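WARN no homologs supplied; continuing
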Amino acid sequence: MEKQCLEALRKKRRELDYSQEYVAGKLGITQKAYSDIENEKTTLKDGIRLKLSKILDLNPDDLCPISNSCSHIYKAKNEEFIKLLKKNKIEIPKHLL
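OK structure emitted
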C-alpha cells in the first residue's frame, strides 16, 4: 500500500476510536497482523480489504488494490488519457467510458 493510503487507514481507525486489536478482531486476524498492514509490512489481500472497508466505513478503493497502487492514481491517469484522446479527436467507444 502507498503511504497515503496507510495514513488514511490509520486516520480513519483513530477517528472512530478503534484500537488495532478491535479492528483485528473484527477481521479475524491478530493485532500483530493488523499492525503489519498499517506499517506496510504485508500486502492487504482483497478479502481483508473489503472487510476493512466495511468496518471503517470506507470505499474499498480508498484502501488500495492488491497491486499496492491507489486507484485514484489510475483514475487520474485515465482522465488525462481520455482528455488527450478527445483533444486529438480520436473517437472513444462509449462502452469504454
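Residues 34 and 59 are 19 Å apart (CA to CA).
OK
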